[in-house]
Design goal:
Blueprint (H helix, E strand, L loop, with lengths): L3 H17 L7 H7 L6 H10 L5 H5 L12 H15 L4 H4 L5 H24 L20 H31 L8 H13 L19 H29 L11 H26 L7 H26 L6 H18 L7 H18 L1
Bound molecules: iron/sulfur cluster (SF4).
Length: 364
């Protein structure tokens, strides 16, 4: 639950919006507010994750500080999002990672890289970290196949369990007595809205983070989104090539796994760097300090994984391959461990909020 004062403040600010209604035609959040006589705890959690932080409403609003009404919807929604991420994550002791995301992600990443490097050094000998390995199975002469797959499956399954628990709790809380909101129609509408990032269009032209109606945030976010999907697809293709077709990695540059992985890696590097650059230049007033810290930490994590992956590809035929493989696997392990406790979870809560919004809009 949010603190009663926080929910009351959300209700107060959104009542002003409900009276004004200027932003209603531009943003799904205000259309959803219009359907509610009062804003309760579940409504705040729902609206916060429906908000895409485009900041159009802050630019348009005549009641922002220093006006006595002090309406700042993007900041309110950003703080509520951070609180929902923390509220629905388990175990609680790890959910505390949300409070200091930069230190947590930096510390976990460093620890994972050190642990993987030490395991390789003790398990395979220090020569594995500094010897040229080429030909089929070269990576597995540094880190054996099972030593790669088992930790990835265990960490992946744990992360999925945490996310499923959070998704279920969140969906129950925002249901607010109106029954099931999941249907084929609402899910397909939500998928379309998520893939096109339609709510990052603000009033139509784009976000209002560095200047009015800038398309760049949507563009860089698209690069990261499709880059992650391309890298995930590359992993599936590599598994098929190895386990079904019997070809051991490393694969040629022109092969589907490497081409997809490279495209995805480059897209993530450019997209995450672009988002960081926009964040550095944007106004901090219409957001929360905790959300900014979480954004930077997650983007830095993505940059680390993508850059170490590309470096491994570039130097895989050299003596640096062993060390680069250990560093890349360590950073991947850190991504798996921290993903359920960082900005990554916005994919889950935002998707559920979009499904509920689609159901409300269809019903309306
Ligand atoms: S910041 Fe954008 S998405 Fe969020 S409430 Fe304002 S207009 Fe809507």
């Amino acid at each position: 639950m949010f603190e009663p004062d926080f929910t009351a403040e959300a209700d107060r600010q959104l009542s002003v919006c409900n009276a004004c209604r200027y932003c209603e035609g531009f943003c799904a959040v205000f259309g959803a507010v219009e359907l509610r006589a009062a804003i309760g705890d579940g409504d705040v959690a729902y609206l916060a994750n429906l908000c895409h932080d485009c900041r159009m409403c802050f630019d348009a609003c005549m009641f922002t500080p220093p006006h006595e009404f002090a309406v700042n919807i993007p900041a309110l929604m950003a703080e509520a999002r951070v609180q929902t991420y923390e509220r629905y994550s388990r175990p609680r002791v790890l959910a505390g990672l949300f409070r200091t995301p930069g230190w947590a992600i930096g510390g976990v990443t460093l620890a994972c890289i050190v642990v993987v490097t030490l395991l390789v050094a003790f398990g395979m000998g220090t020569t594995a970290l500094e010897t040229v390995q080429v030909g089929p199975g070269a990576f597995y002469r540094v880190v054996p196949y099972l030593a790669m797959v088992v930790p990835a499956v265990v960490l992946g399954a744990f992360g999925i369990l945490v996310l499923v628990y959070g998704a279920r709790s969140y969906a129950n809380d925002i249901r607010s007595g109106d029954g099931r909101f999941v249907s084929l129609r609402s899910v397909s509408t939500a998928i379309r809205d998520a893939i096109t990032l339609v709510y990052l269009k603000g009033g139509g032209e784009g976000c209002y983070d560095v200047k009015r109606g800038s398309p760049w945030r949507r563009f860089f976010h698209m690069l990261v989104f499709w880059g992650v999907l391309a890298d995930f697809s590359a992993t599936i293709c590599a598994a098929i090539a190895q386990d079904l077709l019997g070809y051991l990695p490393p694969y040629p540059l022109w092969s589907i796994p490497v081409a997809l992985g490279t495209l995805g890696g480059v897209a993530i590097v450019v997209g995450a760097a672009g988002l960081i650059a926009l964040k550095v230049r944007s106004d901090a007033k219409p957001t929360s300090a905790r959300m900014i810290a979480m954004d930077y930490a997650f983007l830095a994590m993505l940059e680390t994984v993508a850059l170490t992956g590309l470096a491994l590809l570039a130097f895989r035929s050299t003596a640096a391959m062993g060390s680069l493989l250990a560093i890349h696997l360590g950073s991947l392990a850190a991504l798996f461990i921290t993903a359920p406790y960082g900005k990554f979870v916005h994919i889950v809560y935002r998707s559920i909020a979009l499904v509920k919004n689609a159901a409300e809009q269809n019903g309306a």
